[in-house]
């Protein structure tokens, strides 16, 4: 008669069963994060290269947010951009809907843009709620955009447009700075391909093109 296999012995079977239970319990209790939320955070940071702390340190004003059920119109309809203040993405036309706007297309490396931005901030403070003044960074490097704005003391709301889609949508040439004046219905009133000289220049242009005196 042949000898029974070691695995067939009752004592060995009980030991193996106990080991399996211990391993299963360890795996079940092992701490882990929700994979979906972790991957979302990693993807967001990898796409922009900017952390939430860096955005907060820049101190930018929050971007305009679309009212519930609002849909944008005009050439910017359906164009999604990221907010420099917090990294959230939204339909630009929907976020601006219902109020005239001045969009300033700029980039961190643009000298004339740096000269113009303080005038735009002063004008925005003067204009108050009469219209939205929004900066549009037309370059992929958000970190340098935030650093440039902080260095200039600019706290205007701003969005990131790495592929210069806004410029293409309004038919502006590939130069910076460019300012786009939008009516409340999203249509383009004017595309200013130049650097504003001062606050008075901005105010006069807004009055002439949008009929808003501030």
UniProtKB/TrEMBL annotation:
Name by which UniProt lists this protein: Thiol-disulfide isomerase/thioredoxin
Lineage of origin: Bacteria, Bacillati, Actinomycetota, Actinomycetes, Mycobacteriales
GO molecular function (one): oxidoreductase activity
Gene3D superfamilies listed in its UniProt record: Glutaredoxin
Subcellular location field: Cell envelope
Annotated keywords: Cytochrome c-type biogenesis, Disulfide bond, Isomerase, Membrane, Redox-active center, Signal-anchor, Transmembrane, Transmembrane helix
Cellular compartments per GO CC: cell envelope
Positions of transmembrane segments: 12-31
Domain Thioredoxin: 56-211
Biological processes per GO annotation: cytochrome complex assembly
